[in-house]
Amino acid sequence: MDKKAVFDFDQTLINVNSFTKWVAFLLSKSFESGDYKLFYKVSIFFFRRKIIKTLSHQNFKKALIELDVKQDYYELFAIELSEYINQEVLNHLIELNQNNYKIAISSAAPENYLKEFVKKNIPTKEILVIGTIVENNVLNDNFGERKVVNLVKKGFLNPKKEFDILFTDSYDDF
């Protein structure tokens, strides 16, 4: 039988909420690099979400995921997030991986930057990474019970069997 461990990302593998950092990163990086079209779009979404409150969190996240963002932004953001790695949790992940556990990182963070973070910062083999994505124009927000649904959908979990270890800060995940 396979040994399996699931790791949350925000406030677990890293010590911050990556999504709020992502919004700030998009605003600052697009402005400083002269990508004013992206800066304008993110600013409008942010204004609608935080100032006039006409955009739900889910629609805000969906809008940001659907933006045409340069690949190097994901790479630079992955490097920026590396300063927030929870080394103790990362050490557990590496040790479990070396002991032949199958590892999944499952997070409500957008998958587009989550995968880049894992590629740049986690020196292990074969990790399943599942984050929030847009499928068929619908937000698949990988949060709470959706994490289990998505882990089953990807073949990592069998709905009739338990897995061994869960690292999370969230009661919803538990």
Which secondary structure elements does this structure contain, and how are they paired or packed?
Layout: E1 4-7, H1 9-13, H2 18-32, H3 36-51, H4 57-65, H5 71-81, H6 87-98, E2 102-110, H7 111-121, E3 127-135, E4 138-140, H8 145-153, E5 165-167
Parallel strand pairs: 1-2, 1-5, 2-3
Antiparallel strand pairs: 3-4
Radius of gyration: 17 Å
The percentage helix is 40-55%
The N- and C-terminal alpha carbons lie at a distance of: 22 Å
The residue-averaged pLDDT reads 92
Percent strand: 15-25%
Output the structural class: alpha/beta
Outline: globular
Strand order of the largest sheet: 4-3-2-1-5
Number of helices: 8
Largest sheet, in brief, is:
5 strands, mixed
- H-E order: EHHHHHHEHEEHE
Stretches where pLDDT falls below 50 for ≥5 residues? none
Number of strands: 5
Index terms:
174 residues; alpha/beta; 51% helix; globular; single chain; five-stranded mixed β-sheet
Condensed summary:
The protein is an alpha/beta fold and 174 residues long. Helices cover 51% and strands 16% of the residues.
Summarize the structure in words.
This protein is of the alpha/beta class and 174 residues long. The chain contains eight helices and five strands, in the order βααααααβαββαβ. Strands 4-3-2-1-5 form a five-stranded mixed beta sheet. The longest helix has 16 residues.
